[in-house]
Amino acid sequence: MARAVNLTPKTGRRLTDSLPQDRVADHVRLLAERPTGFSLAAPFYTDPAFFTADMEGVFGRHWVFAGSIAELPDAGDYITVEYGPYSLIVLRTDDGGINALHNVCRHRGARVLTAPSGTTGNLVCQYHSWTYSPEGELIHASAPGEADFAPGCFNLKRAHAREVSGLIFVCLADEPPEDFDEVSAVFEPYLAPHDLSRTKVAFQQELVEEGNWKLVMENNRECYHCDGHPELACSLFPTWGLTDGIVPPHLADVWERNLSAELSLQQRCARYGLPYEVVEELDTRIAGIRISREPLDGEGESFSESGRRLSKKLLGDLRDFRLGRCSMHLQPNSWFHFLSDHVITFSAFPLEAGRTLVRTTWLVADDAVEGVDYDLETLTHTWKQTNLQDKAFVELCQQGTSSPAYEPGPYMKSEYQVEAFISWYVQRMQEHYA
């Protein structure tokens, strides 16, 4: 179910107002000149001015995945989300809603909450004890002889927040993109059977990758490099992204096995009334999406060496462990795997031009018991290793794009989703400058 709880935010000054006009002109020119099917010019990955523009044109205007309701199970629970110059407090209210508040005290700008997560009643700034309600209203700023301003003029600034099928999204724009309702309607039927309202956090990993956020997303959008993921290759077919005409000879047997597993999965989905069809609108709408239910190798149940389940507890009302993975990509910063026994959410939060935080969260059924129903190390092993491998790949690319010898290279046919991501990015930035 989707819920929007917010007051109209005021985003304040434009970040790009501080940029030299020649840097803005360079950005606009390179967006216009970017050849289809090729990676971006070096400044898109390395230039702090271009990073500032990204923070305004993408992360300042579009819906960003912040976390899941499993991270905020009770009223007063909060997480802090940081990207670029922004810091948000995302918290659950007494009525079950979600608020997003800028983590900037209205007195002198101190961070109000400094922990990455926790539980709070009112929000108290540690500096001078200005105190705010969970709605962001200033309720205490008194001192002897000082009460000469209207507290209502100094509430915490708010961002838009909404929950869809247990996923929490935030948007800093005064008026968020309108097509997110349409996209939500697309993915809700796929996610509903997994029922994130009845899950809990088993583990959360945070990795800072020394690479631009777009390189992180590009790496995620293809499996051309999947030979570098031996643990993942046990269960994820390395033919992902390939079609009949471009399967290399050494993957021919795997391709046939994948086709057979896909047919079997589709029959299971039909039996249980689960949607599985590919919906791919990565660069043809503002809130770009790709979602489908796809088979896994081996036993076809989960991301393990044998493909067998990693938790004994089924999620939601699912009745079968062998349902592969429901895979979803959302622009600009997230991807997900919804399995019968657990869910993994991934979010990329840009920190600087060459640094990105990748947050991975494993969710299991809320009644699953660690050590009885699942082993934590086994549950997380495949994607912990895969994330470390991806971190190394991204950092290799960042080093290369920083070299004077770098020039944009062509994407392979199997990397069409990388092209779609970059196409989406170029469109959004051109709209921003229009």
Automatic annotation (TrEMBL):
The keyword S-adenosyl-L-methionine does not apply. It holds the Pfam family Rieske. One of its GO terms (molecular function) is monooxygenase activity. InterPro entries: Rieske_2Fe-2S (IPR017941), Rieske_2Fe-2S_sf (IPR036922), Ring_hydroxy_dOase_asu_C_dom (IPR015879), Rng_hydr_dOase-A (IPR001663). Keywords: 2Fe-2S, Iron, Iron-sulfur, Metal-binding, Oxidoreductase. Its cofactor is Fe cation. The keyword Heme does not apply. Residues 63-170 form the Rieske domain. PANTHER family: CHOLINE MONOOXYGENASE, CHLOROPLASTIC. This is Rieske 2Fe-2S family protein.
